[in-house]
Amino acid sequence: MNFSELNQTNDEKKVIEYLQQKKVIREKAICAKGHNMRLVSRKQRNKIIYNWRCTTCKTTSSVKKDSIFEQNKKSLLTLVKIIINWTLQITYTNMAKLFDMHRTTCAEICQKFRYIVAVDYNSDSYMLGGPGVKVEIDESLFARVKHHKGKDM
Asked: Are 15 and 80 in contact (CB under 8 A)?
């Protein structure tokens, strides 16, 4: 499954498989007592919910546990679609209408992913240019001049 197919699907199981393949969420789970868990589905309020369930002691655990999605109550399908729309630079207002949620909820989810991307981007060192290549950066993109103070005329 590629990124565009992921945006068009309404099957959360396919989204879970995609995220497991990309190592975003766990492929296997072990309960607190050390038993293997398996992925199970159950119907709740006209939705299908996926959880890990221990094959021995019957305890359950969220599919989102130990992932970047853990703190959010929205389904993985909705969260992935919000991420895709965020990367396509869709506005929060349009996303809120599309996913039937409040604009600030979309903004908070996108803000969290923006932070994750920024931390990951800053942890890697990127080199601009290369041997024999001159790189010029326009500082007006990084600094703002107020009332023409310190600006050459």
From this structure: yes
